[in-house]
Amino acid sequence: MSTDSSCGSSDTGALVRPILVSDESRSLLREAVDSSCLELERRHGYVRPRRFLPGGQKCILKDLGECGDRKCGNYRLGKYAAVRPDFLKFCVDHIKAFCSKAGLVYCSLGSGQLLFDWELLEHLTQKEGMHVRAIHLIDIAYGGAKHRASAVRAQRVFAGWFQERAWEKGEKGQKGRGCGEACPVRSFLSASDFQSWVARTGESVDVLLDCDAVSARKKMDVDKFRLSVLRAGGVCLVLSNPAKRIAIHKPPGNGTADTVGLRELVQQVYRRGAWHSRASQKAETTLQLHRGRGKPTPEETEATQKKDVHGYERLEQSAVELPAWYQCKAAAKMPARPSQLPPLPPSETFDEDDDDD
After folding, report:
1. Is 187 exposed, middle or buried (0-12, 13-18, 19+ CB in 10 A)?
2. In a 3-state reduction of DSSP, which class is residue 139?
3. Residues 96-138 pLDDT 10s
4. Is the pLDDT reported for residue 9 higher than 90?
5. Do the Cβ atoms of 73 and 83 come closer than 8 Å?
6. Distance between CA 284 and CA 286 in Å, rounded?
7. In terms of domains, do 357 and 228 share one?
8. Is there a single domain that holds both residue 227 and residue 324?
9. Which terminus of the chain is more solvent-facing, meaning fewer CB atoms within 10 Å of its CB: N or C?
């Protein structure tokens, strides 16, 4: 079996061959992050860390990247610069609420050049004290006929950051010198490949990240995929374009994976520099209907009330026991000028999140 990711491996679940990251390079970069000195730039069509750190040293993660489309609602260097940092906090809060620190199994769909994945996992391990047991990365750019050399290199650097000794363990059957700290990173070219791998190995995931992965979701039953790869109790975190973030939970249950179901916890959209819950969006849409062409018909009103994300149940606070975190952090804060939005009906009010950025 060929497992050399530098050549674009097409093997399902192949271990990624890491590029060695020295302790010095890792330490220098963490110092830059801690002092808010890690600068980003648009280079070769992607948003990437600058080639050199402020002190003049080479940046070991300069090959990581994310979408550089200036028209994208999630573009980090434009007017939506707050979207991805806010989504990072959103992910961290949900992972802390629903996942154990003992050994996280993480999967990223459409992970591309992995800048956001690195930010999230680095925060979880260094700031929250979580241990990541395994990482699974899904993107067609990692191998086969459509592989991209830049994506493969980013994947290898990413693997080197998190598990430079795990390759030796997989290749030679020996324990690495990391005393259990090595974290295997596996590569998949499609969601169906990973879905089949999970069915075969039984290794479902605690966290499924879907960060602006539009192309990876094409021609697939995304609901079925999420249901089949998430473990009971796991969480799926979604960022789509235009900026919208969703948290989906697979609650523990006594049934099989096909009967437990998924529940949408939060869905928020980014408008006018702030995050708004679906309730406020619905109220504004209703107001526009009133102003634009008169009162909506009873059919429109009924459709609006019943509308929900396909395949998910609405989360009822009275019916499902949630962690204490969710009792006080149920939605995003209101916009800076609440008077711009119409008052919400009593049945659609939501609490303000004092901790939101």
Report:
1. buried
2. coil
3. 999 999 899 999 999 999 999 999 999 999 999 999 999 999 9
4. no
5. yes
6. 5
7. no
8. no
9. N
- State the Cα–Cα distance between residues 115 and 209, nearest whole angstrom: 13
Residue 36 in this model has a pLDDT that exceeds 60:
yes
Cis peptide before 184 (omega within 30 of 0): no
| 144 phi-psi bin (left φ>0, alpha ψ -120 to 50, beta other) | left
Task: Confirm if 217 and 223 have CB atoms less than 8 A apart.
Answer: no
Do 84 and 168 fall within a single domain? yes
The answer to whether 192 touches 220, Cβ cutoff 8 Å, is yes
The number of residues making up the chain comes to 357
C-alpha 95/C-alpha 327 separation (Å) is 16
Is 64 inside any structural domain? no
For residues 155 and 88, membership in a common domain is answered with: yes
The pTM score is 0.74
pLDDT tens digits, 60-75: 999 999 999 999 999 9
CA distance 181 to 169: 12
- Asked if omega into 342 is within 30° of 0 (cis), the reply is no
* pLDDT value of residue 12: 78
SS3 209: strand
Whichever domain contains 122, its CATH number is: 3.40.50
Query: What are the backbone dihedrals phi and psi of residue 42, each rounded to the nearest 5 degrees, phi first?
Result: -90, 120
What are the φ and ψ backbone dihedral angles of 234, each rounded to 5 degrees? -75, 170
DSSP 18: P
Query: Do residue 312 and residue 248 come from a single domain?
Result: no
**Token representation of residue 301:** 């009103």
> Would strands 46-49 and 66-67 be described as parallel, antiparallel, or unpaired?
antiparallel
Residue 41, strand partner residues: 48
DSSP 3-state assignment of 15?
strand
Closest CA to 263 of 302, 225, 223, 228: 223
Please state, in angstroms and as integers, the Cα–Cα distance from residue 108 to each residue in 42, 187, 230, following that order. 23, 10, 12
CA atoms within 13 A on the CB side of 224: 8
d(CA 261, CA 256): 9
Residues 249 and 158 in one domain: yes
CA distances from residue 235 to 29, 199, 247 in whole angstroms, order as listed: 29, 18, 7
